[in-house]
Specification:
This protein is of the alpha+beta class and 728 residues long. The chain has four domains: 90 residues, no CATH class; 230 residues, no CATH class; 111 residues; 218 residues, Trefoil (Acidic Fibroblast Growth Factor, subunit A). The protein is built from 21 helices and 15 strands. Strands 2, 3, 6, 7, 10, 11 and 12 form a seven-stranded antiparallel β-sheet that branches. The longest helix has 33 residues. It starts with 16 loop residues before the first helix and ends in a 14-residue tail after the last helix.
C-alpha cells in the first residue's frame, strides 16, 4: 500500500532560460529606481485622487472608464499602508512621508515588465522562430515610451498587459484545439482569455478594441470548424457553448463584479455623489442619507415633499418658490402673468417644500391610514411656506417664450382662473397602479388643462435675471415627444404632514422627520445608474499643452513632458524609441503591400510562397496588424482630448509585427546564402541603432542623470518636441 514511498518522488521541468532572462531584464528595466522622482508625475495627480478616495471609502465617479484599474492602483496603496492623506493638486509636488511611492507604482511597473515575456510567447505561439520571438521581446524591453508609462501610477501598462495576456491565452487555446480539445489546459487558456479580456475592458474601455478583435477571430475560427466534416453536430454545439461561456458570459459577470467590489468599498458620501440620483445618494453613508433616513416610503395626500430634478447636471436643483412675483414686463417688452415665481434652486431651502393635496378635499395633512398617490392620479401641489398652488397657463415663460410660464397662483380677480391640476405619471413604474414612492419613483407632472409637462429648462440654458435671483427657469413644456430627464422629478425629502394650521406647519417644515422605512437600492440598480453616468458624463474637453492628434502619433511629432526637477533640470518625457517606431511603420507598410501582392497573384493562381507560410503570414497579420488597426483607427472618430499615451496599445502590436515581417523577408525573399548573410548583418546593424536610441534617451526616460544644457538641446531631434530648457 505504501510502496510508492520506496522510490523518491522526482519532478522534472523544462525551463526556457531565454524567457527567464527576458523576464528578469524586464523587471530590472521597470523597477530600477522606481521611487524616483519622489514627486507627483503627470497624471499621477489625477489617479492619486481616486486612490485617496478608495483609502477613505468615499464614493466617486470617473468618466474615463470602469473602476478595475483604479482598484488595482488602490491595492498598491493599501499594501503600502497608505492612509489617503495627501493633497493631489499639483504636478511636481513632493510626496509626504506617509505616501508609499514604491508601493503605489509597483503594480503598473510589474505589468509593464511582464509585457516583455508575453511578447516573446505570442510570437512563439504564432509559430515564428526563437530569434523572431526574442527580437519582439527585446524591442518591447527597449521601448522608451513603454518604460516611462509603466514606471508611474498610470493605467496604460496594466491595460497593455491584460491585452497581451488575452492574445497569448487565445493563441495557446487555439493551438490546443486540434489535439487536446476540452482538456484541462484547453479550458484553462480559453477561460483565461475571457478573464483577461474582461480585465482589459475593466481597466479602460480601450480594451474593448482588442476584445472585439479576439471575438471576431474566434468567430472566424469557429466558422471554419463548421465546415469540418469530422466534427459531429453535438461536438460543434459543445464548442459553441464553451466559447460563449468563456468569451461572453464569464467576462460580463467579471465586469459586473468589478462594480460590485467598487460600490462595496465606496460606501461613504462624497463630492461626486451629487450627480447621482437621490436614491443612489441615500444609499451612501452620510450626506443625503443623514437627511432621508427613516422617511416614509409612499407619498400620500397631505405629504410634505421636496422635488429634485433627476437630470442633475450641470448642477442639481429642487423645485422652489418664493414670495416674489414675475415682473409685469420683461426687458424685451413681453408681458408676464405677474404671478409668484417658481424656479429650480440649486440649494436646500425651506422654500423647496411642497404639499401634495387632493383636489377634492381641503385638508393639507395625511389621513389615518394614509391614502397613497398612484400613477395617473391628479393632484395639486401647494407651496409649503406661501400656501399658493403650482400653476401654469398660456403665458410665455420668461426665457423660453415657446414654453408656458410656471407660477404659484395669485388671485388678482381678473379673467385668469387658476389652472393648478397636475397628473402624476411614474416613468419607471412596473404597472399602471404603482404607488408614488420617495426617492425611488421618477415622476412627470402633466398639466391637466394644457398637457404641458413640468420642466427645469434652466439646466440647459441661462439662469433668470436679477429679479429671479439668478435661479434656474422652470416651464411647462407643451411639445413633449417622449421625455427628457429635465422633465422628470423625484421626491428627495418627505414627511407626513400633521399640522393643518399654517404657523404650526411652518415649524414642521423646518424640523426633521423620523420614520423607519428602508429605501436601499439593489446592486443592479446602482450598477445601471453608475454605468450610465460613466458613459454619458463627460467633462468639457479643453485644449491641453501636450494634447495631440492621432496623425501626430505615427511619426511621433509630439511628446509629453511628465516631470521637471525644480533645480537640476532633470526631466522625464513620454517619447518613443524613434528607431523602433520608424521600423514599425515600415513593417506595417511592407506587410500591407506584400499582402496585396500575394492576394493579387493568388487570384491569378500564382503561389509565391507555400500554403503553410501563407497561413502563418495571414494569422500573424490578423493579430499584429489587426491589433494595431483596431487600437488606432477608432481615435479618428473620437471627439475627445487625445494624448500620445493613447497610442501605446496600438504601437505595441505594431512592434510585434516587425519580427514577423523580418522573418518572412529572410525566409522567402532572401534566397541565396549571400543575401541571407547581408540581411542578417542589416538586422544586427538595425538592432544596434534601436539600442543606441534607447541609451540616448534613457536620461529623459528614467529622469536621471540630469543632463547639461547642450545635451538636452541635442535630444531635440524634432522641432515639434518640447524638451524643457531652463533659461540661464
Amino acid at each position: 500500500m505504501l510502496g510508492f514511498l520506496k522510490e523518491p518522488v522526482v519532478v522534472t521541468a523544462k525551463i526556457n532560460v531565454s524567457l527567464v532572462a527576458l523576464t528578469v531584464m524586464g523587471l530590472i528595466s521597470r523597477l530600477w529606481g522606481l521611487c524616483y522622482p519622489r514627486a507627483v508625475v503627470f497624471d499621477e495627480v489625477y489617479y492619486g485622487q481616486f486612490v485617496s478616495l478608495y483609502m477613505k471609502r468615499i464614493f466617486f465617479v470617473d468618466d474615463s472608464g470602469p473602476p478595475f484599474g483604479h482598484m488595482l492602483l488602490a491595492l498598491g496603496g493599501y499594501l503600502g499602508g497608505f492612509d489617503g492623506n495627501f493633497l493631489w493638486n499639483r504636478i511636481g509636488a513632493e510626496y509626504s512621508m506617509n505616501v508609499p511611492v514604491w508601493s503605489l507604482r509597483l503594480l503598473p511597473a510589474l505589468a509593464g515588465a511582464l509585457c516583455v515575456p508575453l511578447a516573446y510567447q505570442i510570437l512563439a505561439e504564432l509559430h515564428f522562430s526563437h530569434c523572431a520571438a526574442l527580437g519582439a521581446a527585446l524591442l518591447i524591453l527597449l521601448e522608451n515610451s513603454l518604460i516611462t508609462q509603466s514606471r508611474f501610477m498610470l493605467l496604460e501598462s496594466i491595460l497593455i498587459f491584460f491585452i497581451l495576456l488575452a492574445v497569448l491565452s487565445y493563441l495557446k487555446f487555439y493551438n490546443l484545439q486540434k489535439h487536446s480539445a476540452f482538456s484541462g489546459s484547453w479550458w484553462f487558456w480559453l477561460l483565461l482569455t475571457g478573464v483577461a479580456c474582461s480585465c482589459a475592458v475593466g481597466v479602460k474601455y480601450m480594451g474593448l478594441f482588442t476584445y472585439m478583435l479576439l471575438l471576431a477571430t474566434a468567430g472566424l475560427h469557429f466558422w471554419h470548424m463548421i465546415g469540418d466534416q469530422n466534427l459531429s453536430n453535438v461536438s460543434l454545439l459543445c464548442h459553441f457553448l464553451a466559447r460563449g461561456l468563456a468569451l461572453i458570459i464569464i467576462p460580463m459577470g467579471l465586469y459586473l463584479s468589478f462594480f460590485y467590489v467598487h460600490l462595496a468599498l465606496l460606501y461613504r458620501s462624497g463630492p461626486h455623489d451629487q450627480i447621482m440620483t437621490s436614491a443612489f445618494q441615500a444609499s451612501l453613508e452620510g450626506g443625503l442619507a443623514r437627511i432621508t433616513q427613516g422617511q416614509p416610503l409612499e407619498v400620500a395626500y397631505g405629504s410634505q415633499i421636496t422635488l429634485r430634478n433627476i437630470l442633475g447636471k450641470p448642477m442639481q436643483c429642487w423645485l422652489h418658490s418664493h414670495t416674489n412675483t414675475y415682473p409685469i414686463r420683461y426687458e424685451n417688452g413681453r408681458g408676464s402673468s405677474h404671478q409668484q415665481q417658481v424656479t429650480c434652486y440649486p440649494f436646500k431651502d425651506v422654500n423647496n417644500w411642497w404639499i401634495v393635496k387632493d383636489p377634492g378635499m381641503q385638508q393639507l395633512v395625511v389621513s389615518n391610514p394614509p391614502r397613497p398617490v398612484r400613477h395617473g392620479h391628479v393632484v395639486q401641489l401647494v407651496h409649503g411656506i406661501t400656501t399658493r398652488y403650482l400653476n401654469t397657463h398660456d403665458v410665455a415663460a420668461p426665457l423660453s417664450p415657446h414654453s408656458q410660464e410656471v407660477s404659484c397662483y395669485i388671485d388678482y380677480n381678473i379673467s385668469m382662473p387658476a389652472q393648478n391640476l397636475w397628473r402624476v405619471e411614474i416613468v419607471n413604474r412596473d404597472s399602471d397602479t404603482d404607488v408614488w414612492k420617495t426617492i425611488l419613483s421618477e415622476v412627470r407632472f402633466v398639466h391637466v388643462n394644457t398637457s404641458a409637462v413640468l420642466k427645469a429648462s434652466g439646466l440647459s440654458g441661462a439662469s433668470l435675471p436679477e429679479w429671479g435671483y439668478r435661479q434656474l427657469e422652470v416651464v411647462g413644456e407643451k411639445l413633449s415627444k417622449g421625455y427628457h430627464q429635465s422633465m422628470v422629478w423625484n421626491v428627495e425629502e418627505h414627511r407626513y404632514g400633521k399640522s393643518q394650521e399654517q404657523k404650526e406647519r411652518e415649524v414642521e417644515l423646518h424640523s426633521p422627520t423620523q420614520m423607519d422605512i428602508s429605501k436601499n437600492l439593489s446592486f443592479m440598480a446602482k450598477f445601471t445608474e453608475l454605468q450610465w453616468k460613466i458613459l454619458t458624463l463627460k467633462n468639457e474637453d479643453t485644449e491641453h499643452k501636450y494634447s495631440s492628434s492621432a496623425l501626430d502619433w505615427i511619426t511621433m511629432d509630439t511628446n509629453i513632458a511628465y516631470w521637471l526637477h525644480p533645480t537640476s533640470g532633470a526631466q522625464i518625457h513620454l517619447l518613443g524609441n524613434v528607431a523602433t517606431w520608424a521600423s514599425a511603420n515600415a513593417a506595417a507598410l511592407v506587410y500591407l503591400c506584400l499582402s496585396l501582392w500575394y492576394l493579387l497573384r493568388r487570384r491569378r493562381k500564382i503561389y509565391d510562397i507555400p500554403e503553410d507560410a501563407w497561413q502563418l503570414w495571414m494569422s500573424a497579420g490578423g493579430i499584429c496588424a489587426g491589433g494595431w488597426a483596431v487600437n488606432y483607427l477608432p481615435f479618428f472618430l473620437m471627439e475627445k482630448t487625445l494624448f500620445l499615451y493613447h497610442y501605446l496599445p496600438a504601437v505595441t502590436f505594431q512592434i510585434l509585427l516587425i519580427p514577423v515581417v523580418l522573418q518572412h523577408l529572410g525566409d522567402h525573399l532572401c534566397r541565396s546564402v549571400l543575401l541571407k548573410s547581408m540581411f542578417s548583418a542589416l538586422i544586427v546593424a538595425w538592432f544596434s541603432s534601436v539600442y543606441f536610441v534607447y541609451c540616448t534617451f534613457s536620461p529623459v526616460t528614467y529622469g536621471q542623470p540630469a543632463l547639461p544644457l547642450t545635451e538636452l538641446k541635442a535630444l531635440r531631434w524634432k522641432d515639434t518636441w518640447n524638451i524643457l530648457i531652463r533659461k540661464q
